[in-house]
Amino acid sequence: MSFWQDKRVLVTGGGGFLGSYVVERLHAEGAAEVFVPRSHDYDLRDVDAVRRLFRVVARPDVVIHLAARVGGIGANRARPAEFFYDNLMMGVQLLHEAWRAEVGKFVALGTVCDYPKLTPVPFKEESLWNGYPEETNAPYGLAKKMLLVQSQAYREQYGFNSIFLLPVNLYGPRDNFDLETSHVIPAIIRKCIEAKDARRSSIAVWGTGVATREFLYVEDAADAILLAAEHYDASAPVNVGSGTEISITDLVRAIARAVDVEVEVTWDRSKPDGQPRRCLDTSKAERLFGFRAHTPLDDGLRRTVDWYAANRHAPVINAAPATARRG
Predict the structure, then answer these.
(1) Segments of 84-179 assigned E as strands
(2) Tens digits of per-residue pLDDT, 148-198?
(3) CA dihedral for 299, 123, 238, 321, sign (positive or negative)
(4) Which pLDDT score is estimated for 1?
């Protein structure tokens, strides 16, 4: 019998990009009940709303906290206070009320933005506190990092079963393709497709192209979360990624190949590169709960390009499918 078949699971952010895949996987694994609270019903920044949620969804076996305010460098620079406050308050109150409600297990997600700006590559979990995060997304990274502090404190004092995962940048179908708020992969996909449609020979990209990033396909990330929830039970943070580093220049070339378009890149050097390099040591995830990414970047990019090309004229193209019972 699947670990999940008798489990009642609460997934915050279950209607979003990553959350929709986690919810689908839970259903596929036969979870007894899956609850997806929506923000218009439960504002997780409001403690009364969180308490009401745990009255409606009484004592779930597992809480998977995916709800977050997220965005690319531009969105983080434009709204640093919102990124700090919203993420901090959602995490602090949800974990505290989950402990009060005697939840069986709490799965918290941090972010690669938690790491110091100049962390040696590959990033090891032991380096997490060796400096200040990259400035353009430090408020977001520090707010998410407080979930680790809280998780460890509640485990130490109360014996609360809470774990903390550190995922890299995710991508895939259903991502956010709004150029004002999206991350780098969906933004470049959209620019390449629009250039192809308009027969333009160039696109503009932020920065210099020399920064590197690591990306994880969203379905692989959902697998990692379920594996960790089932098999991992300790205070230490664990990296979740593909373990593969690529420069932004090479990423643009890979996306252009997936779109089947030839474009020249105009680098907007007035805009920041962000963190100089990002690549995780993912050995602990494989050792501790058996996770290894399976989707090569080129395959994932092709699937993402195909999905966006087919859905870009839909009214809301990053809406999650309605597959869950909603609290």
Answers:
(1) 105-109, 162-167, 169-171
(2) 999 999 999 999 999 999 999 999 999 999 998 899 999 999 999 999 999
(3) negative
(4) 64
The residues annotated as belonging to the active site are 140
Residue-level pLDDT at 325: 38
d(CA 117, CA 31): 39
Peptide bond preceding 122: is omega within 30 degrees of 0, i.e. cis? yes
pLDDT digits (tens, 9 = 90+) for 58-89: 999 999 999 999 988 889 999 999 999 999 99
Q: What are phi and psi of 109, to 5 degrees?
A: -110, 125
Measured distance CA(234)–CA(54) in Å, rounded? 24
Other C-beta atoms closer than 10 Å to the C-beta of 285 total 26
Provide the whole-model pTM: 0.94
d(CA 101, CA 115): 31
E runs forming strands in 168-301:
169-171, 202-206, 212-213, 215-217, 238-240, 246-247, 264-268
Structure tokens at 12: 């915050």
Q: Which residues contact 308 (CB under 8 A, 6 or more apart)?
A: 173, 177, 186, 189, 190, 193, 317
Taking the C-alpha atoms of residue 74 and residue 90, their distance in angstroms, rounded to an integer, is 22
Task: Report the chain's C-alpha Rg in angstroms.
Answer: 19
DSSP states of 208-240 as a string? Answer: -S--EE-EEEHHHHHHHHHHHHHH---SS-EEE
Distance in angstroms (rounded) separating the CA atoms of residues 221 and 242: 9
Q: Which of 234, 237, 92 is nearest to 156 (CA)?
A: 234
Tokens (6 digits) for 250: 């090479």
What is the distance between the alpha carbons of residues 90 and 143, in angstroms, rounded to a whole number? 10
